[in-house]
Amino acid sequence: MSWRAFAYRIARPLLFAFEPERIHRLTIAALRFAGAHALGRALLGLAGGVHRRSDPGVQLLGLTFRNRVGIGAGFDKDARAIRGWSALGAGFVEVGTVTPEAQAGNPRPRLFRLKADDALINRMGFNNAGAAALAREVMLVRERLPEGFVVGVNIGRGAATPAERALDDYLEAFRLVAPIADYVAVNVSSPNTPGLRDLQDPQRLTELLVALRQAGEQLGHPRPLLVKLAPDLDGGAFDELVRALAAAADGLILSNTTIARDGLRSPSRGETGGLSGRPLLPRLLDAVRRARKLAPSMPIIASGGIFGRPDVAEAYAAGADLVQLWTGLVYVGPGLIGQSALVAHNGA
After folding, report:
1. 138 and 151 in contact (C-beta within 8 Å)?
2. Which residues of 214-229 are buried (b: 16+ CB within 10 A; e: fewer)?
3. Which residues are marked as active site?
């Protein structure tokens, strides 16, 4: 066991003594503070453990990623800790999900630890400060980020927006964030906004992507468009959607949280919302394998269930180009970034 893993194992009971959403807010605040100061960035670098032997990076989506390990959407919804994530050694961060207007999200409690399962259940509901506020945060730190650190922005539909006006929300959010984003991820798969997953229809999703691409060209800020899919699609629907996206999107993010509850042991397993963490890994790997066969050249980001080097290696072997961390950071600690960056990509 590395000293980083040991130190986090000692600290974790104290962190887990706090209510989950409260410690999450404190973590983002601490990363924001540390990322703004040279000493803080140095300490974060030690905690993350990324060094010169780590993954040398990749050219993908027309971008240069300094390494293949990123932070998944949902951890830093309002882009408040970007410098902290870069100091920890991540190659990229996906901020959001952000909606055109600020919204409070669902009532609390809405985030639950499943400690016996190394998992979380959340029903946050796209709580965020709005796309304009996020764009301002990214703009203020952009010139202070290291070379090769990529910032993606994940966009979604507002909870109060009728389903028939979903396109308007995505377009408005896109127009606000496209000038500052390196890529834009389209979230149509969260289980916590009623009706959102209905957009996982090949025709509707293709129309949405065409509209976003046209908006980017009109703005003079064309951006790579990635789509984040649910792990709960049945095989036929998933295959049909991936075939359509191979022509309409620039990449896939697999996958979002799941509504499945197979084999869980924790007392909170019955809470509604999306499940993330270790139980998601088999669904993630299956989705990546299927997508890679259907779209051999399409960039794929594996997001979900990554808890260590073996998981990263499996994701690459399945066909992923990049990986994203989220719940694994909660249970393993920031040293997971360095562990993951050490895994060589197999060139799939």
Report:
1. yes
2. ebbeeeebebbbbbbb
3. 190
